[in-house]
Amino acid sequence: MLEVKHGQVLILNQQECKKLIREEEVPQLMEDVLRDFSNGEVINPLKTHMPFYSQYNSYLNAMPCWLKNRNVAGIKWAGSGEDNPRTIGFPQSVATLILNDPETTLPLAFMDSTYIMALRTGAVAAVMAKYCCKKDTRVMTIIGAGVQGTSAFRMVMLTMPEIEEVRVVDINPQATQNLIAQGQKLYPHLKFVAEQNLQVALKGSHLVIPAAHSAGSSGAGILDDLELDPGTTIVGISGGLSLAKVRQRCDRSILDYIKCFVYRINATRDYMKELYGLEVAEVDESVADCEIGDVIAGKAPGRLSDTEIVHAAGVGMGIEDVIVANVIYHRALEQEIGIVVDIIN
Ligand SMILES: NC(=O)c1ccc[n+]([C@@H]2O[C@H](COP(=O)([O-])OP(=O)(O)OC[C@H]3O[C@@H](n4cnc5c(N)ncnc54)[C@H](O)[C@@H]3O)[C@@H](O)[C@H]2O)c1
């Protein structure tokens, strides 16, 4: 058993984190922590958004939290470098994370959170799908077969094993092929369709997961002008319906954390105005009917009928990353994985 003494931290890299958590475990962790949030058992302050526009096409978000019931605090430091895949061959979304002892505030661990972020983003989407989809949901469309889209596909297959057909839409045919090849290996019984035409993919799709890049300053979404079948559930990771269209076109709107979503969207709006003179409408809490934690806790419905069009989306919360990081940390100590370093000495 490794020991982390006061003033020391355990350092865990991405490959070590990967060894210490199984993806099948993550949807349940997300359900637990989102229910805890609804019940006031965890504290998740608003994230702080720090953009580097217009000098760089990037931003960082500080996402602290306290899991009171698990006696751990932490902060995810989440970056988005839009040019990374092209310029340095790294993903757009990258993150690190620090775990702290709530009593002493001393750090316990410093670790990669890029892998954790992909796991938890897909898992939250999969939990939202499970609680919001109509009965007999069989056909899922993934838009954007990158890191988050692929994770969402894999996680939905865990929360909704009844899915029979997966349609994949990506402007990069290689990304589509990669997801399908991975999916066929894991789930040979599934029907996979590579579809270029988004409208064709939407017809007959019960669950739609947009995970392409957001439209940026224009505010438009790739689903805005397309037809949606009654009963469709859209679980938005990025770039699907624009905010104005969610309220116009969907019967029900569900978020992970309404206050944080409003803050985050308005923060971008303020920067866009300041830097580029763009006038974008301010968002308020009427943007959603309820939070997914309330649905999981049985305090609000995920949908009211099989014909409603439901939109669910997550702004992302530190609790989702820290609960996974805490599991990884304890297993790393038990299995003696990682390096312990004197940091406050
Ligand atoms: N909601 C959250 O908690 C959360 C967390 C992490 C990332 N994200 C967001 O998710 C998005 C995707 O991130 P990623 O890490 O998967 O990136 P990625 O680069 O790995 O994947 C994006 C994929 O979308 C495809 N794509 C781009 N435009 C498209 C379009 N118009 N139609 C179809 N496909 C399109 C790309 O070809 C690529 O394959 C980013 O915008 C990121 O900010 C959200």
Q: How would you briefly describe this protein structure?
A:
With 345 residues, the protein is α/β, with parallel strands linked by helices. It has helices at 14-20, 26-38, 84-87, 114-132, 147-159, 173-186, 198-202, 243-249, 258-276, 292-296, 318-335, and strands at residues 8-12, 48-51, 58-67, 72-81, 93-100, 107-112, 139-143, 165-169, 191-194, 207-210, 233-236, 252-255, 290-291, 310-313, 339-342. It folds into 2 domains: 8-116 and 319-342, 2-Layer Sandwich (ornithine cyclodeaminase, domain 1), CATH 3.30.1780; 125-317, Rossmann fold.
Task: Provide mean pLDDT, rounded.
Answer: 95
Largest sheet: 8 strands, parallel
Beta-strand segment tally: 15
Tell me the name of the CATH class of the largest domain: Alpha Beta
Strand content: 15-25%
- Tell me what the CATH architecture of the largest domain is: 3-Layer(aba) Sandwich
Low-confidence runs of at least 5 consecutive residues: none
